[in-house]
UniProtKB/TrEMBL annotation:
ATP binds at G9, I10, S11, G12, S13, G14, K15, S16. It holds the Pfam family RapZ-like_N. The lineage of its organism: Bacteria, Pseudomonadati, Pseudomonadota, Betaproteobacteria, Burkholderiales. This is GlmZ(SRNA)-inactivating NTPase. PANTHER family: RNASE ADAPTER PROTEIN RAPZ. It comes from Pigmentiphaga humi. Residues 168-284 form the RapZ C-terminal domain. The keyword ATP-binding applies.
């Protein structure tokens, strides 16, 4: 079966790095292919016997063509292609800084100038977010704020290597002091739980280490929190599937993103390991893994009931 990865997102968020990563993984890649040519290009790739194709799509395509992409993807799947869409994003401050450092012009600068709008970088980014909004809802969103190119390459490899399943479910830990990640669909706050940070022995460890896991597992409210979150997800996950959603990111936040949120994410990932493809992302640790129960030390595995 032909596997197709569409890369899109906000300019400056790392699409060039992601596209090169696909090339290194054996994908035949095309940058900035207009949406109206997608069907013919993918059909030709299938007829030529290609197995992996990567296509970068950005805001330089017309807004009408971008809005028609959902119908185009449906038609491509009818050809027998496996489609995966990855949307890269970053916060506006990070994007502005990247443009300042690279001294490159935003690709929508001329477009805004022709429309009589002062083409500041901030204005271009805001306009691009509006144009690409429909695509963001279709794909697996990765917030590249704070990521190095090597970290982004690792995250892209894990996303495209995930099995083809009805739903890719990502559990992500983060630090509230760094802000809520842009790629989160559901956000849960676990800062009300006891914090291992205040124990000098546990402070340098993470929620994946046995001493921290044992400390948190012994607290009844931690188990109750995990059960409540898992119950919410179990209840509403079918509705997300009925909404034809292919990706769902559940973000768990604590103060530093190191202990409580990491532990809760690991427990939830283990509980939902049998429900499609499960990814685990720890933003504070810059980790993004395909979940495998065998990777988790026995002391860190779930102590709470759930599916």
């Amino acid at each position: 079966m032909l596997r197709v990865v569409f890369l899109t997102g906000i300019s400056g968020s790392g699409k060039s790095v992601a596209l090169r990563t696909l090339e290194d993984a054996g994908y035949n890649c095309v940058d900035n292919l207009p949406v109206r040519f997608l069907h013919d290009f993918i059909a030709a790739a299938r007829d030529d016997g290609l197995q992996r194709v990567g296509v970068s799509i950005d805001a330089r395509s017309s807004s009408g063509a971008i809005q028609s992409l959902p119908e185009t993807i449906t038609a491509l799947r009818a050809l027998g292609a496996e489609i995966r869409l990855v949307f890269l994003d970053a916060d506006t401050g990070t994007l502005v800084q990247r443009y300042s450092e690279s001294r490159r012009r935003h690709p929508l600068t001329d477009k805004l100038f022709r429309e009589g709008v002062a083409p500041s970088v901030e204005a271009c980014i805001a306009h691009e977010r509006e144009l690409l909004g429909p695509l963001r809802e279709l794909g697996h969103v990765i917030d590249t704020t704070g990521l190095t190119p090597s970290q982004l390459r690792s995250w892209i490899r894990n996303v495209v290597q995930a099995d083809s399943t009805p739903l890719v479910l990502t559990f992500e830990s983060f630090a509230f002091k760094e802000g809520v990640p842009l790629d989160a669909d559901l956000v849960f706050d676990v800062r009300c739980l006891p914090n291992p940070h205040y124990d000098p022995v546990l402070r340098p460890l993470t929620g994946r280490d046995a001493p921290v896991a044992n400390f948190l597992a012994a607290i009844p409210n931690v188990g109750r929190m995990i059960e409540d979150i898992s119950s919410f997800i179990r209840t509403w996950l079918p509705e997300y599937l009925h909404d034809t959603r292919s990706y769902l990111t559940v973000a768990i936040g604590c103060t530093g993103g190191t202990h409580r949120s990491v532990y809760v994410v690991e427990q939830l990932a283990a509980m939902f390991a049998g429900r499609g493809q499960v990814l685990v992302r720890h933003r504070a640790q810059k980790q993004f893994d395909l979940y495998d129960p065998g990777d988790i030390p026995p002391q860190s595995r779930p102590r709470h009931s759930g599916s």
